[in-house]
Amino acid sequence: MKSRPKSLTILALFLLSIGVALPLQIMVMYDHAPWEMQSILAKLAPLNWAILLLAPLTGGLIYLASSWVIPLVPALCALVIYNNWLTATVGGDYSWHQTIVASGLFCGVFGVLCTSEMRTLLLHPEKRWWLTPKRWKATIPVRMKILTASEEREFDTQTFDISESGAFIPFKQGMAILPVGSECYFCIPLNEERMIKCHAEVVRAASARGDYPAGVGIRFKDLSWNDRLYLGIHLRDIPDELPKDPRDGQPPQDYAAAA
Q1: The predicted structure's pLDDT at residue 5
Q2: Where are the chain's structural domains?
Q3: What are phi and psi of 244, to 5 degrees?
Q4: What is the per-residue pLDDT for 259?
Q5: Residue 25 contacts residue 51 (beta carbons within 8 Å)
Q6: For the segment 160-187, what is each residue's pLDDT rounded down to a tens digit?
Q7: Is-contact 85 99, C-beta < 8 A?
Q8: Which of 24, 26, 212, 252 is least surrounded, with the fewest CB atoms within 10 Å of its CB?
Q9: Are strands 141-147 and 215-220 parallel, antiparallel or unpaired?
Q10: Mean per-residue pLDDT for 44-62?
Q11: Rounded distance, CA 171 to CA 176, Å?
Q12: What confidence category does residue 61 fall into, taking pLDDT thresholds of 50, 70 and 90?
């Protein structure tokens, strides 16, 4: 999927709004002014605080399509149903009919997560294509040191495209036999003053397609935050000239997807 589904964004915003809705509800019920925040927060029960903390957390994970949503959504629904039951039984501010309807509507909004598309996103991180870092077509000379059980090989080559998470290296002599999973060290000279060195892994081998040459996808494994920042700054100065992907608009199945 090329872009984040709008339903995930809407659902995340809905859960984030709960952090405002509960204090606002108390403010209206007890005629508090907005600046009487201490009195408003004092009327929040421990169960209310649990919902206030869990709802935004769940909303953030829904926005990321994280698989942690699977256990957290039922837990949040159970808390809300129990809270509404207590409100109708003990508080008396709302009727049973109102709390049942409110609980049903709250739980019902999560029905969107039960669709086949959403289940796929939650269970398969590699399908979240909108999280794939942008790639730049750039011929950058690099130094690779291949580590195998039987030998170590070191040679100079160059990138075909590169992102902050990895690079695609066209085949050259000696590279075609690299199996997926091969470990290597990568040296990328950004300029005369800075060179990035990191541990990397071969995550796929690809045959030539359209304008894309045959080659291997390399995933950076231990790129530091500082090096990633400098690499991103360097790449943003490169014109965006990636050739057309020959796979009819399908998400590019490259090193980033396998990461």
Answers
A1: 87
A2: 6-130, 132-258
A3: -65, 130
A4: 37
A5: no
A6: 888 888 899 888 755 656 778 888 888 8
A7: yes
A8: 24
A9: unpaired
A10: 89
A11: 6
A12: very high
Beta strand residue intervals within the chain, DSSP E:
136-137, 141-147, 152-158, 161-162, 166-170, 183-189, 195-206, 215-220
pLDDT of 115 higher than 80: yes
- What is the helix (H) or strand (E) element at residue 83, kind and residue range? helix 69-86
Cβ distance 243 to 138 under 8 Å?
no
Long-range contact list for 49-58, CB < 8 A, 24+ apart? 50/79, 51/18, 51/22, 51/76, 51/79, 51/80, 51/83, 52/18, 52/19, 52/22, 54/79, 55/15, 55/16, 55/18, 55/19, 56/15, 56/16, 56/18, 56/19, 58/15
> Which long-range contacts does 126-130 make (Cβ < 8 Å, 24+ apart)?
126/257, 126/258, 127/1, 128/1, 128/4, 128/64, 128/65, 129/1, 129/2, 129/3, 129/251, 129/257, 130/1, 130/2, 130/3, 130/4
Instruction: Over range 89-102, report the average pLDDT.
Output: 80
| 80 pLDDT more than 60 | yes
Q: How confident is the model at residue 135 (pLDDT cuts 50, 70, 90)?
A: confident
Q: State residue 258's pLDDT score.
A: 38
In the CATH scheme, what is the code of domain 132-258? 2.40.10.220
Where is average pLDDT lowest: 7-11, 68-72, 168-172?
168-172
Taking CA atoms, 86 is separated from 8, 24, 79, 113, 240, in Å, by 30, 19, 11, 27, 58
